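Technical note accompanying the year-one report. For the benefit of new consortium partners, we illustrate the data format agreed upon in the data management plan: each record pairs a sequence with a structure-token string. No post-processing was applied to the example shown here.
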Amino acid sequence: MADEPLVQRFMRFTGRLRVIFGPAHSSPLDHEMTEENRHLLARQQAAAEQWTAVTRADGTTYLVPKDPNDESLR
């Protein structure tokens, strides 16, 4: 077993830990959204709406502000 790859030893060790402690906890997706999460989601959506993705001819994309007069990142 000494010549066993490190990845396999790690996976076997973590498998033994899962037997003892159980799988990692995951929260259900159907819970009610808290007021704090609603405010956070609204802020993130507002921040995302100020950008647009531009695709170059070679297929790469980059973000630019939707406001054409904003030269802050160009």
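Partners are asked to follow this layout when depositing records. DSSP finds two helices and two strands in the chain.
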